[in-house]
């Protein structure tokens, strides 16, 4: 494992890996763990936007909708140029979810020295993430998130993914950046598959 991680680190440099998936697919869970083993910094657009919504009192995503593109650009993109991230690789959680945002994300990331080297899709069905949502509500372990208030809001988030984020992923696929991982496994197995596929991509780039 250590040899594979070192190969990934050498290939990644100060670049970025962007992780996507349906709500409840485990993006932040896997992203935090990946950042830890790669000595990278973790950035989540969801966490940033929810913090800014709380600070400003403007809850753009409370009904399950994605934040407007102009708000995303204003609140999230400046993080790429933060001094404390300057020499670090980045693991991103769904940075640029709305079709068209991906081009600006790639441009800003590259300009700040964090070129996007791979995009991971945690692939899992809507039925399975709804089950996870229901289980999380029963356990009350999602905190006071307005976008997780009820199942109808959650289903709006699923619709937003289908209509706005799937085209983003298709674009990354055309650029040969997309890596698909089976998200319907144990957390450990998902993580191991991520490592294996990043290692394969890193090895291929040096072939």
Could you explain the architecture of this structure?
The protein has helices spanning about 1-10, 25-35, 45-55, 70-75, 100-110, 125-140, 150-175, 185-205; strands at about 15-20, 40-45, 90-95, 115-125, 180. It is of the alpha/beta class and about 210 residues long. It has one domain: P-loop containing nucleotide triphosphate hydrolases (Rossmann fold). The protein has a 5-stranded parallel beta sheet with strand order 2-3-1-4-5, sandwiched between helices. Helix 1 packs across helix 8 (about 185-205), helix 2 (about 25-35) crosses helix 8 and helix 6 (about 125-140) crosses helix 7 (about 150-175). The longest helix is centred in the C-terminal third of the chain and has 24 residues, at about 150-175.
In CATH, what is the class? Alpha Beta
Mean pLDDT: 93
Give the terminus-to-terminus CA distance.
Answer: 20 Å
Order of helices and strands: HEHEHHEHEHHEH
What is the helical fraction, as a range of percent? 40-55%
Low-confidence stretches: none
Largest sheet: 5 strands, parallel
SSE class: alpha/beta
CATH superfamily: P-loop containing nucleotide triphosphate hydrolases
CATH architecture: 3-Layer(aba) Sandwich
Number of helices: 8
Q: Strand order, biggest sheet? A: 2-3-1-4-5
SSE map:
Blueprint: H1 2-12, E1 16-21, H2 27-37, E2 41-44, H3 45-56, H4 69-75, E3 90-93, H5 101-111, E4 116-123, H6 126-139, H7 151-174, E5 178-182, H8 187-205
């Amino acid at each position: 494992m250590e040899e594979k991680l070192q190969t990934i680190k050498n290939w990644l440099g100060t670049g970025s890996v962007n992780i996507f998936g349906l709500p409840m697919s485990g993006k932040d869970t896997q992203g935090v763990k990946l950042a830890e083993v790669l000595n990278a910094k973790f950035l989540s657009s969801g966490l940033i936007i929810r913090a800014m919504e709380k600070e400003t009192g403007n809850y753009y995503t409370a009904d399950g909708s994605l934040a407007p593109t102009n708000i995303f650009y204003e609140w999230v993109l400046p993080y790429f140029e933060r001094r404390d991230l300057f020499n670090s690789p980045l693991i991103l959680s769904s940075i640029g979810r709305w079709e068209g945002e991906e081009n600006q994300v790639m441009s800003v990331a590259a300009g700040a020295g964090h070129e996007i080297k791979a995009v991971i899709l945690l692939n899992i069905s809507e039925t399975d993430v709804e089950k996870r949502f229901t289980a999380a509500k029963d356990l009350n372990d999602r905190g006071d998130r307005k976008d997780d208030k009820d199942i109808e809001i959650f289903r709006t988030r699923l619709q937003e993914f289908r209509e706005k984020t799937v085209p983003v992923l298709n674009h990354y696929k055309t650029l040969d950046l997309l890596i698909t991982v089976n998200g319907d496994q144990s957390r450990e197995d998902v993580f191991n598959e991520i490592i294996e596929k990043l290692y394969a991509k890193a090895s291929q780039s040096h072939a």
